[in-house]
């Protein structure tokens, strides 16, 4: 179920850029994102801190306060979501996203105790990822929107590749993914050097009128989530 390319969003040395909400020619605000605005879990200290004031582990193992689910997106990207009830595998859900909502499929479940135990076993590692709140199960209309998005993504991918080729940028655009609510589009790429995206981002923003992210290909994020899943 994990036979997809894998991506990372948080390394300090990764290349990840985003436009602002409204592009202002006079004030070209853009940012290089080194660390996501996420939940940071230090091993093992933060886990111990989080347990303060909670019921004993044995009780929580029998009656988990929340369930953690691994959610897979069409690009193969993985996220960890949480909900008060367990959700069946292969169920599509709507969950929190970057200033909006996204849609993905449940490919793994863990109880609260199982999740904390798995994280605690990963020694000498600072885990940095964002836990997404699962809002609801996806409806038939939601799934239709997901299917319709594939055609739009194919067209957007071609447009981005054309712009990159026209500017002779030393990068290969691999794929793209719209957030389910169409408020953001992420272009995945690979390059052997750091790229100045500012002019490219301006052009992409003019075309798509949504927030644009450029994400360098990596593997660590999905590997980490699979390790937690066990």
From TrEMBL:
- The source's superkingdom equals Eukaryota
Ranges for the PSP1 C-terminal domain? Answer: 132-217
GO CC field = cytoplasm
For this protein, the record's NCBIfam families field holds: RicT_YaaT_fam (NF041131)
Query: What's the name of the protein?
Result: Signal peptidase-like protein
Q: Which organism is it from?
A: Encephalitozoon intestinalis (strain ATCC 50506) (Microsporidian parasite)
């Amino acid at each position: 179920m994990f036979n997809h390319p894998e991506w990372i969003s948080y390394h300090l040395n990764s290349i990840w850029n985003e436009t602002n909400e409204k592009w202002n020619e006079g004030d070209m605000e853009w940012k290089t994102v080194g660390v996501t605005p996420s939940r940071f879990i230090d091993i093992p200290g933060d886990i111990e801190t989080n347990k303060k004031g909670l019921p004993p582990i044995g009780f929580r193992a029998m009656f988990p306060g929340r369930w953690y689910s691994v959610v897979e997106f069409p690009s193969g990207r993985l996220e960890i979501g949480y909900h008060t009830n367990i959700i069946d595998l292969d169920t599509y859900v709507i969950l929190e996203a970057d200033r909006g909502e996204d849609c993905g499929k449940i490919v793994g479940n863990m109880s609260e105790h199982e999740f904390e135990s798995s994280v605690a076993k990963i020694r000498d590692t600072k885990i940095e990822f964002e836990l997404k709140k699962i809002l609801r199960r996806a409806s038939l209309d939601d799934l239709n929107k997901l299917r319709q998005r594939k055609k739009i993504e194919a067209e957007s991918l071609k447009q981005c590749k054309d712009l990159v080729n026209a500017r002779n940028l030393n990068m290969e655009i691999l794929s793209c993914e719209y957030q389910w609510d169409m408020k953001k589009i992420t272009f995945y790429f690979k390059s052997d050097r750091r790229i100045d995206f500012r002019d490219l981002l301006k052009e992409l923003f003019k075309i798509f009128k949504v927030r644009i992210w450029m994400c360098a290909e990596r593997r660590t994020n999905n590997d980490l989530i699979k390790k937690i899943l066990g």
